[in-house]
Structure formats: structure tokens, C-alpha cells
Amino acid sequence: MSPTPQDARPTLSELETGVPFADRHVGPRPDELASMLDALGIDSLETLAARALPDSIRDAEPVDSTLPAPVGEAEMLDELRSLSERNTVTVPMIGLGYHGTRTPSVIRRNVLENPAWYTAYTPYQPEISQGRLEALLAFQTMVADLTGLDVAGASLLDEATAAGEAMTLLRRSGRSKSPRFVVDADTLPQTLDVLRTRAEPLGIELVVTDLSGGLPDGEFFGVLLSYPGASGRIADPSSLIADAHERGALVAVAADLLALTLLTPPGEFGADAAVGSTQRFGVPLGFGGPHAAYLSVGQRHARQLPGRLVGVSRDADGNYALRLALQTREQHIRREKATSNICTAQVLLAVMAACYAVHHGPEGLHGIARRTHRMAAVLAAGLRAGGVQVVHEHFFDTLALRVPGRADAVVSAAHDAGIALRRISDDEVGVSTSEITTVAHLQAVWAAFGVDAPDVAELDSATGDALPSSLGRTSGYLSHPMFHEYRSETALMRWLRRLADADLALDRAMIPLGSCTMKLNAAAEMEAVTWPQFADLHPFAPESDTAGSRELIDQLERWLAELTGYHAVSLQPNAGSQGELSGLLAIAAYHRSRGEDERDVCLIPASAHGTNAASAIMAGMRVVVVGTDPRGNVDLDDLRAKIAERGSRLAALMITYPSTHGVYEAQVREVCGAVHDAGGQVYVDGANLNALVGVARPGVFGGDVSHLNLHKTFCIPHGGGGPGVGPVAVAEHLAPFLPGRTPRGEGGVGPVSAAPYGSPGVLPISWAYIRMMGVDGMRRATLTAVAAANYVARRLGEHFPVLYSGADGSVAHECILDLRKITKDTGVTVDDVAKRLIDHGIHAPTMSFPVAGTLMVEPTESEDLPEIERFVQAMIAIRREIDRVAAGEWPADDNPLRNAPHTAACLADDKWEHPYPRELAAYPTGAVPGVHDRKVWPPVRRIDGAHGDRNLVCSCPPPEAFA
């Protein structure tokens, strides 16, 4: 090799910088990208931008950005460390529903930090999602057992919003016509705040009252009790529940799961529902989230549960199999009639909580609860001996302590000793113990209260429990073998590996789900999530302890505002559904501030995400559907007609851009202008922002508000169906109405999630992505995603018609393949194609959304050309198999497509009576290399969904059920 010429030698600065992160994030290599562009007949990404994006929305030149220039991984991590070092982690004894916990290393390493778990998507293809479905079934079983109720969902976003979901569940399940909902005043304050936010637009009247003296007079449809209360008080709820039922109301109980290992569960008192958090089951505090909430109900309310529900069904061979049951994606089916806008869960965190229960088993959880309670009881005894008044006689882990005029001094003294306590008032302090509390912590708390340290062993032997003897738990829990078989780390590690092997996540293959943006979640982006300075912060820690995290949040909000062209951003919404609701609540509050309360109509195109309509109803608006034209665009004539008919009542238009049909609509400015001219506001759903960042800004081309999906465009991993973050971005006139920023009495909408900043534990991921990519890198990512989608559309268009495209024939970042004529002619359905892709080792695209009988494909910018080609060749091979069915070579009801996916067990069966060979079933022909060496063996065959819904089983059946 000849030496490098002097003029070609890289500079020292260039050598030091190394490979830009964008080169790692973007999948296609330069020669691969050139090949893709050549297939499209264009020469560059900029030419693609000029062709695909309408001039009316496109930034003519790259935006002059105040975002810092991109840095490499090492530099980014150094900056994050500097921010983390500005945080002060204290021993969290604040309580309020957030507690210190220990994440077992085997769970942290094998779940939280394992891409096999965190890069998976919602299990819409259950045959290759059996692992996470089994873990979620364990979560449901754990919650149902501990709460004493029949059915639990697969997790909700946080305890406060779960209480909101319980409130509306009780309303629609009960017979009472009263709008009143009674809430115990001893409820977590953040739960009360969110309930107020959720209740107002629905016309629900909250009655917050001290229930220690009984229920209030008058009618009400439901009651929320706390067990234990926010103050720590434990009271027998049985008479309140019985009284409520006698008066025609239903009852939900907010309960601490760890306490329920020692206390009589709500279901045994006759409660209709229970809500709470599973954070203290091994999930880090994370400054407030993400954490998996729970909602469990009695059997008669099972079909009213919002969100995800894992159910037991059977596969084509009659074998046990799991799937999402009942209301999976109900928003896309029922739209404005949906009972909730929740379309996701907190799967990764629910899996961690379930694994924590599996790891410890019932005996271990009981021991942790006993230790936590003993710490509180001994602490209380020492304080009493020192003259401090303990307000409540009965408690589990939380003490309310009366110290007239000394609260600030006590809290300050404890903080100086490295312990965070809760200031309740000038005269009261709250202290909560947890799994991580030690005797040394008790001694420090005694000192902070000015109490001489007692002899702990002597005090312990002289102190009884502080639990009411009449409420001691007598029923068993976690009796299923799952909670007994994996007690050693070896066994647990192998169980987790078995579950991961039963799934297909992004670490094994491309997941080309349209509208879901399954892109790279880089390891460097994930690294800081488990750093103690971020992970161990309590959400209500003093501001002086959280300067680093708050600076990170402030920077991220400013960066997101600039990238979207808006004035301000709130990161509080902890899911896209919450972001939608927040944006609509802000619009409603804005109209009220102008004296235009009558504006309550929300126009929504027929092509919109189903959550849009559900969110509008939750915001107190009336949905009016706007039609779409034959090209999938908003029908301008119909829009103008609907505005003319309802203009004085028009509150908002919700549109997704690019459209849900995967098209850049050229007339979007006209659409926005028509709404503005009528006095309405424009909500641009940011679900498809991956096709806009760096090239166009919704806040510039007509939007007043957008929610963004950080778990899509900005690289927070989907985690099997959560966590997500759905911040809301607004124009300047809507900034005063951002969630949680302005008190409700001053015109604000109030908080939409429990923690002040939603789920900040995962925000370092998006911060790191933006910091390493920079504006130019993100622009390149956007245009590469558009190039990849157009390449797929061009390669597959002759085999499967592309349903919608722009005027020039281009699509945005996704394309819809239309199988409806194929189905009509051959009987082969989108389900058949999706399941046959499993035999190829590939996850299916999005099925039958937004158009029934179609597949929506989104390759993202992170997949290289060989992987994209693997998908393309698999689809072409499937089309050839469809042709053989059409030709009569294979019967319509017995062919490789209809029988897919094929398990190893079915191929090994001695009775192979199908008209195609076993080898073709296992290793489809016509695909690029990868079917053999990357073979994915599904653990089950096609699952019978109808059977699972008819025979609803949503907790772990005993092993003998499958004998």
C-alpha cells in the first residue's frame, strides 16, 4: 500500500474526533445509500427533500440553530456526568408513593440493560412475543394476588393516572347517574391534582373529604379510598365500602402492594377496583419515573379495564399461548367511543416488578415488608420516647410527626445528615421507611428530631407492631410455581434468557412497523439511565439536590422547542396519549381565557390515529370527522363545509403530519389557515416527527400545539410497550396553559401525571441522541428514513400496490402496501403475510392500520441496505407463494401462508400431511441469506384470538391446566 499523500493526511483534530455518532446511528453506508437513491432516480438526499416535501412546509435552508455542535460518545458521557454530579442523592425517606428499593443485579443486567427486552415493541405479533407476555402475565398475577381481585391489567402509566382511569371505569360500570366522585382527603396529593385535571372536562365533580367520620351526604357514583393513607394512617375500609355499595356507588382503593403482603387485601373487603404503583418492587426512583402502575378489578368489571390485558389462549395445535386480550388498540376501533385514550403500558418496568416478585417469592416479599414495617415501628417508638408526637397509632411505613414550629429545622437537620424527609406543614414532618432503610438511618432521624439515640436492640424488643391486628392478612398470595422455581440466580438468569429467546426484538431483526418508528436505541444513549445520580433521585427531593437533572430537562425542552418551531415544551406527559390530552386541554383553557367557552368541537380526519378522538372526548370536546380524498389527504371541501357548519364552536383540528397514510400533504398550510380563520387552533400530532426533524417544523407551517413521541423519533426504546414520553410543544400564546406550569385557579390545566417532570429517568436517552447527532445529523437521519421508505415502496410496488403517495409519487417515512385485492382474489390475508414473515425471521409491519387489509411499512434510518433487502426479498417470496395459491397449486386453506408460523414441534410431527414440504415451511425459498443462519423459531403457532376473548384467563393458570 502506498503511503498517504501529505495533502490527504487527516488533521489531528479530525483524528481526535473519530467517527461521528451520526455515522453509527444511520444504517446505510454511503455506497448503500447511493444505491438506494439511484433506484429512486435521484442523486442526493437534498434532491429527495426537494422532491418529496412540499415547498410550503420545507425549510428552504438548514435552520440557523442554537443547538450545540454534535459531540462523540465519550464527550457526551462526560457532559452527562458533569450534569449528574450537580445532583445530590440523599436517603429517600419522603414517601408520597415513591420509595427506596434495590434492583437485583440479575434483573438490572438481564432486563433493564438488555436490548432483548428494551428494544421490543408492543406484542401485536404474539407468536414472537411469548416471553414478554409471560412476564406480563406474571405481573398481572402478582397484582391480582396481592390486591385480592380477580383481574389486573398489564400496567398503566403511574399511580395518579391509574386513579383517573379507575374513576372513569367506576363511572361507566355503575348504575348511579350522579356526577359526584368522593375521594379520601388522605390521598396522595399528586393523585388528587391529576384527578382534578381529569375530572373537570368530563363533568365529574370531585368531593375531597375526610372519610374518617364516614361518607358524605348525597349521591355519588364512586369512592376512592387510600390504604394506607398518604399520612401513613391505616384504617379499616370495610364499613365505608359496604356503605358505598348500599348507596349504589362503586369503590376503588389506592393500595401499597408491599403493605398488602401484611394487610387484608382490598378485594376481601369487597372493593371493586384497586390502584397503585409497583415502583418499590425493584424499579429505581428515576426522579419520578418511569414506573409501572397497576389497576385490578373484580371479574364483572374485567371487560371495562383500560389499556393492555394479557390473556391465555391456544395456538393452532391446541397448545397454551398468550396474547393481548379484549381491548387491544380499542381506540382504533371505537375511536370517540373508546373508554380511554391509553394505548400503551409500562411494559419494561412491569417486567422488572414481576421479576422482582419472582426473584424474592412470597416469603421474600413478606420479609421485606416486615423489615420495612419494623424500621417504622422502632423509629416511631424512639421518637415517642423522646417526646415527639406520632400522629397515627396504626401505620405501615409512613409516620406523620408533630413538631410545633420545628418542621423546617428538623427537615434541614436531616438533610445535613444525608436524609430527605417530607415537610407537611410548619408543625408536621413525614418520614417513610423502605427496603433500603438501615439502623444508621433511624439514628440520623432521631438526631434530626433532637432525640437521644436509644439502645436499638432494647427498643426493638420492647416495641410491638403498629399494624391493626384486625387487618392482618390471612390469605395466601403468589402461590403459582413461577414465584417459587427461580429463586437462585442461575435459575432466574436462565428463565429470563428463555423468555427473551421467545421474543423477536430489534436486537435480532428489523421491525418495520409503520407509525411506530423502531429505530436504533444506542447503548451510549442508554448508559446514564442507571447512574445513581439520575436513577436514585426522589421526585420531591429539594430543588437544591436536583440542579443537574433540572438543567438537563431545561436543555432538552429548549432543544425540542427549537427543532419543532414552537415557543415552549413541557416534558410532564409520560406517554403520547398524555401529550395529546395535554395539548387539547391547553387549547380548551386558551379558549376559556378569551371568554369563548362554547368552542368545544374538535375536527379529526378519518385517517387520524384513533387515540386522537379518544383524547378529544377526555378533554371535553365533541368529535366531528373530516373525510379524506382518494389520495388520502384531508378533503378540503369537506373541511370547509364542517367549519362553515360549526365555525363558532370550533375549538381545534387534530391532524397527523406527515399524514397517517404516510404522505406529506401539500395543502397543510391551507388546512391550518382555514381553521385559524374560524378562530380554532391546530393540533399537529407529532407521531410522525421522524419525517420532519431538521427539514420542516410544525410550529412554523401552521401548528399551535404538538405532542412528540420521545420513544419514537428521539430514541427512548419502546421496551415491549413502554416506557414512553409524550412531551407537548406549544406556540407562545398557549405557553401559559402547559400542564403543571400554572395553577388551575390561574387558568392552567393542572398536572397530567404524578411526578413534576413525568418520567425523567429516561430523558438522558433523548438528551444524548440530540447532543450526539446535532441538527445536521438529525436532518440526515430524517432524509435517510424517507429514502428508505421510498426505496421499499419502489421495490415492492410491482408486487403489492402502494396505496397512497404524494403528487410526485413519493411517500414520507412509511408506505402502505395494499393487499385487499389479493385477499379478495386468493383468500390470503394480511394476517397470513404477517405470520409467514415470522418464518423468515422478520417482524411484520403494522397490520390493517390506518386502512383495513393493508400493511404499513416503516424501515427507519437505522436499518442498513442488506437488512432492508432481507425484508424486501421476504415479501417478494411471499408474493410468489400467494401466486401459487392463486394458481390452485395449494389449497386456500392449507398452504405455507395460512399455516404460518411453523414451529419446530409441528415440523417434527410424524404426521406431515400438508401439500408443501417441511423444508419450505421452515426455510422459505427466495429470500436473501439469513433465513438459515438467523432462523427464529416461534414457540407457538398461530394463536386463536377469539378463543382467548371468549374464555378470558388473565393470570397464570396452574401447571396442571396444560397437562
Task: Set down the secondary structure blueprint.
Layout: H1 12-17, H2 21-25, H3 30-39, H4 45-52, H5 73-84, E1 91-92, H6 105-112, H7 115-118, H8 130-147, E2 151-152, H9 159-173, E3 180-184, H10 189-199, E4 205-209, E5 222-227, H11 238-246, E6 250-255, E7 273-277, E8 293-297, E9 310-314, E10 320-324, H12 330-334, H13 347-385, E11 389-390, E12 398-402, H14 407-416, E13 419-420, E14 422-423, E15 428-432, H15 439-448, H16 456-462, H17 489-501, H18 523-526, H19 532-535, H20 547-564, E16 568-570, H21 576-593, E17 601-605, H22 610-618, E18 622-626, H23 636-646, E19 650-656, H24 668-677, E20 681-686, H25 698-701, E21 705-708, E22 728-730, H26 763-796, E23 815-818, H27 820-826, H28 830-839, E24 846-847, E25 854-857, H29 865-886, H30 904-908, H31 918-922, H32 945-950
Parallel strand pairs: 1-13, 3-4, 3-5, 5-6, 6-7, 17-18, 17-19, 19-20, 20-21
Antiparallel strand pairs: 2-8, 7-8, 9-10, 11-12, 12-15, 14-15, 16-22, 21-22, 23-25, 24-25
Structure in words:
This protein is an alpha/beta fold. 37% of the residues lie in helices and 11% in strands. Among the domains are: 124-346, Aspartate Aminotransferase, domain 2, CATH 3.40.640; 529-772, Aspartate Aminotransferase, domain 2. Strands 2-8-7-6-5-3-4 form a seven-stranded mixed beta sheet, sandwiched between helices. A seven-stranded mixed beta sheet has the order 16-22-21-20-19-17-18, sandwiched between helices. The longest helix has 39 residues, at 347-385. The relative contact order is 0.14.
